Amino acid sequence: MTGPSSLQELISALRCLPGVGPRAAQRMAYHLLQHDKPGAVRLTQALGRALQAVRRCPMCNSFCEEDLCALCGSAKRDPSVLCVVETPADLLMMEQTHAYDGLYFVLMGRLSPLDGIGPREIGLDFLARRIATGSVREVILATNFTNEGEATAHYIGEMLRERSVRLSRIARGVPVGGELEFVDTGTLAQALLERRPV
Amino acid sequence: MTGPSSLQELISALRCLPGVGPRAAQRMAYHLLQHDKPGAVRLTQALGRALQAVRRCPMCNSFCEEDLCALCGSAKRDPSVLCVVETPADLLMMEQTHAYDGLYFVLMGRLSPLDGIGPREIGLDFLARRIATGSVREVILATNFTNEGEATAHYIGEMLRERSVRLSRIARGVPVGGELEFVDTGTLAQALLERRPV
Prior knowledge:
- Two copies of one chain form a homodimer.
- By secondary structure, chain A is of the alpha/beta class.
- The mean pLDDT of chain A is 89.
- In chain A, the strands form two sheets. A four-stranded parallel sheet of chain A has the order 4-3-5-6. A two-stranded antiparallel sheet of chain A has the order 1-2.
- In chain A, 41% of the residues lie in helices and 13% in strands.
- At the A-B interface, helix 1, helix 2, helix 3, strand 2 and helix 4 of A face helix 1, helix 2, helix 3, strand 2 and helix 5 of B.
């Protein structure tokens, strides 16, 4: 006796969401069916539509609905600078700074050999071809400062070394508004090593 | 620039899930579209089917797909004992004990006046009518030992006081396998108060 089968199947299907275990899936299913049927209908439709409409931008590798994403198709962006980020979420963060007007390349992941994620899985062959067209003058590596993000940046750096593009990595250091007392020692050591003349 | 609209709508729709904020919703949407399209298809179908198939059992108030849920329709259960629980999850926990062979009434919530959840919202009128039929001999109150669960149990107790049914509350005390040293003092005090002759 474990309840209706369509409810069981819903609970089981909800577990495909990242970070959702058996208890959370059960709570979600009960919540939707008991308290938020309109939300469940909306979610069903949104999933169906997104599955149909969302594809990859052939330029930046991020999600888009048209032949080209709005950013890559924009005439206002500088096509000679390319910022490499791990995820669409990182791209959004970069956009929110309003400090960048070039284009992006979204890896949709990071190198992680143990998980079977190699250069091809994060579209590096695709990135190399894009650089080979010669339209890009500078590549900014904006992967995370985690081990995997650093390894990915290093790999891309090596890959593009022979190309005639300028390569840079976003700066590491003490966060804006950060107090030295509360910054971890690794970050502080880096901030010291990478000090800039004033 | 916030990405394709169907992706935005999916992220927004995912927030109807309990405990899912903007970041988690974004991560879920990216995960589904990038790594688990089969999972997303399965979830879409499961939601659609559950929305169509799942309704409330007219006997116990829990979720079911037929005219009567499997438990209420079972000839093996004792119809003279009724266990009142807050949620279908609690019912499943009770079933997993294999220590109960009566029927259930599922409140699908608990009294919570501040949230607008009164006796009618948790089906107490419905429970009163069921008791009035005279088929139930004993009611076991198995709501949680939270403030709201206790208040709900108290309210149901008062409501059924005049009826000729035996009323009981599941026992509070030190958990099985629990060590006194690590039990909170409130629980220990209750275990002392409600000590049983051996």
